[in-house]
């Protein structure tokens, strides 16, 4: 899989935090987010899913995700926005890949991406959430996304 290493700026995010199996919580979170954005007539900069936990080590019911939009740092959560949180996504060095996802299979490109980055001779995985930015809405069954994995330069041995 082709990817690049990029220094990524901090982002301010607003949206929903969910806990449970990602195949259920992510679609539910984006439904909630879409309804909130539409009701409040917001104009999102980006639509983002942030993933916490390793699905190979964390039980599905304990996996966490944020379904968010990026907002200006001065953004104030409007009244009557129950469940909406504001947070930040830390800046740092990331491996970044752009892919198309068909048939809702987001797992395959993520596994391929992790395999590629894990084999990188110059970089290593670092602690922090992974995230994806949606470049299309998937209304035609295909999503264009950018995937981000936090990395650091490998230390000389």
From TrEMBL:
Pfam families the record matches: GyrI-like
Gene Ontology MF terms in the entry: DNA topoisomerase type II (double strand cut, ATP-hydrolyzing) inhibitor activity
Leader peptide range in chain numbering: none
Coiled coil: none
Location within or outside the cell: Cytoplasm
Principal location class: cytoplasm
Function: Inhibits the supercoiling activity of DNA gyrase. Acts by inhibiting DNA gyrase at an early step, prior to (or at the step of) binding of DNA by the gyrase. It protects cells against toxins that target DNA gyrase, by inhibiting activity of these toxins and reducing the formation of lethal double-strand breaks in the cell.
Protein name, entry field: DNA gyrase inhibitor
Species assigned in the record: Jejubacter calystegiae
């Amino acid at each position: 899989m082709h990817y690049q290493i990029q220094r990524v700026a901090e982002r301010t995010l607003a949206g929903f935090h969910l806990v449970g199996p990602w195949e259920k919580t992510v679609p539910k979170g984006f439904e909630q987010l879409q309804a909130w954005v539409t009701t409040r007539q917001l104009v999102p900069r980006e639509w983002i899913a942030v993933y916490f936990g390793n699905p190979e080590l964390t039980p599905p019911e304990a996996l966490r995700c944020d379904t968010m939009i990026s907002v200006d740092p001065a953004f104030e959560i409007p009244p009557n926005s129950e469940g909406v949180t504001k947070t930040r996504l830390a800046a740092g060095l990331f491996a970044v890949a752009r892919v198309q996802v068909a048939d809702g299979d987001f797992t395959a490109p993520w596994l391929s991406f992790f395999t590629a980055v894990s084999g990188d001779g110059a970089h290593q995985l670092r602690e922090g959430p992974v995230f994806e930015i949606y470049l299309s809405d998937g209304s035609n069954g295909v999503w264009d996304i950018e995937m981000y994995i936090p990395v650091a330069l490998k230390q000389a041995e």
